[in-house]
Amino acid sequence: SVEKMKGNSTILVTGGAGYVGSHTVVELLKNNYTVIAIDNNVNCYATGKDKPESLKRVEKITGESVTYYNVDIRDKEALDKVFKLHKIDSVIHFAALKAVGESVQIPLTYYQNNVGGSSTLFEVMAKNGVKKLVFSSSATVYGTPQFLPITEKHPTGQGCTNPYGKTKYFVEEILKDVCTSDSDWKVVLLRYFNPVGAHESGLIGEDPSGIPNNLMPYISQVAVGRREKLQVFGSDYPTVDGTGVRDYIHISDLAIGHLKALERMLQPHYTSWKAYNLGTGRGYSVLEMVKAFSEVSGRQIKYELVERREGDIAACYADASLARAELNWTATRDIKAMCRDTWNWQKKNPKGFQTS
Ligand code: NAD
Ligand code: WQD
Predict the structure, then answer these.
(1) 3-class DSSP assignment, residue 236
(2) Distance in Å, CA 329 to ligand 2 centroid
(3) DSSP letters along 6-72, please?
(4) Is the pLDDT higher at 8 or at 353?
(5) CB atoms < 10 A from the CB of 248, how many?
């Protein structure tokens, strides 16, 4: 019955033009879902309010067209129109601001966009009788790990050090309350570890504006000659080589995780909410990542060891066994594939989507 429902269901994807969103839309289309993507283009490359370049590339990859609306999730009327125009079955909710440092500078903008926007979206969903949602959460809700690997039972919300992380925790809590208030709701909270890589075609990938905050885009911009050298934040952590350890996960594996979550949610006995880690279960240090990228690209990656970055933790990696058992999902792409696909995207698009 899951097979039968698949072809018939229409999925609203908020933030569909972003990094995780665009890769997920590819997998949805490949599996015969109908996709309605909305985005306000605040963090994706587009001419004005037109269809973002990432979604045009998705159409190129899949040979399918993507219905797109320039809609802000804080705009109740505009959202409502989308629900009236289409028979939406479920929502995958990616739209959010995600720069940790920026969230410390402009916390209210983050709370309004990520928490206010989400709550508006849930209100409009309920009003239109759409009560199935997959939410982009983050390993950041676990704060400083009390044990490793991190299971879904690890406490959340204690020691989220920045407003961005708190918005993820707050939205999780809002969704739990919504499920308590109305048993029609079905929610999956997906806690991503560190998404990296790009679609194997090299047509879509991560396209940070300005100086990248995250490791992998920074490394690849050094490799392509756009930045001089990587700063390695901290070399005295209690890890394999003193540098920070993270659970990097290939973006296409992550995207497929959303399809598995949808399928789980559509099972008739699924009720209320459940959280799943999406990671590989294995950690790599910053220097291990530099080495792997250098091997795959054949480029030397210049780096210097500098002070720790404020708010960083030593190590973080998932226990990914719950997603394997209940979602029938496991990451299959290794660190080499992550570096190879990042490099392929970077080489073909040295300036990201603006290259086209
Ligand atoms: P992204 O910035 O590439 O994508 C988010 C998209 O949402 C962007 O296209 C942006 O324009 C859009 N958006 C933002 N605010 C909006 C609003 N008010 N209305 C409509 N659209 C809006 O980020 P991403 O890396 O694809 O992240 C997607 C989701 O996954 C986010 O919720 C993020 O917090 C979460 N997440 C990301 C990571 C990561 O490292 N990339 C890790 C954990 C969780
Ligand atoms: C990885 C490692 C750095 C950049 C962040 C958010 C988290 C989640 C994913 C959304 C760390 C080191 C990095 C650089 C470096 N986002 N590093 N030099 O911090 O694990 O997670 O993105 O939910 O909430 O906090 O990812 O890629 O920034 O860092 O040495 O220039 O690379 O110290 O050890 P992080 P990251």
Answers:
(1) coil
(2) 24
(3) HHH-EEEEETTTSHHHHHHHHHHHHTT-EEEEEE--TTS--STTSPPHHHHHHHHHHS---EEEE--
(4) 353
(5) 26
The answer to whether the beta carbons of residues 262 and 89 sit under 8 Å apart is: no
If you measure from the C-alpha of residue 95 to the centroid of ligand 1, how many angstroms do you get, rounded to a whole number? 5
**313 pLDDT higher than 50:** yes
- The closest-lying atom of ligand 1 relative to the alpha carbon of residue 95 is 7
pLDDT in tens, 133-167: 999 999 999 999 999 999 999 999 998 889 999 99
DSSP states along 143-187: -S-SSSSBPTTS--STT--SHHHHHHHHHHHHHHHHHHH-TT-EE
Q: What positions carry a catalytic annotation?
A: 164
- CA 15 – ligand 1 centroid, Å: 6
Ligand closest to CA 246: 2
Q: Order across the sheet with 315-316: list the strands.
A: 284-285, 245-246, 315-316
Tokens of 310: 């404020």
Pocket test for ligand 1, best of 43, 75, 254 (most atoms within 8 A of CB): 43
DSSP letter, residue 141: G
For the CA of 212, the nearest atom of ligand 2: 31
Chain centre to alpha carbon of residue 302: 28
Question: Does the C-beta of 341 come closer than 6 Å to ligand 1?
Answer: no
Full-model pTM:
0.98
Do residues 137 and 191 lie in contact, with contact meaning Cβ atoms separated by under 8 Å?
yes
pLDDT at 1: 44
Amino acid at 63: G
Q: Tell me which residues have their CB closer than 6 angstroms to ligand 2.
A: 98, 100, 138, 140, 165, 194, 213-215, 218, 230-233, 244, 246, 286, 309, 312
Residue of 165, 320, 290 whose CA lies nearest to 223: 290
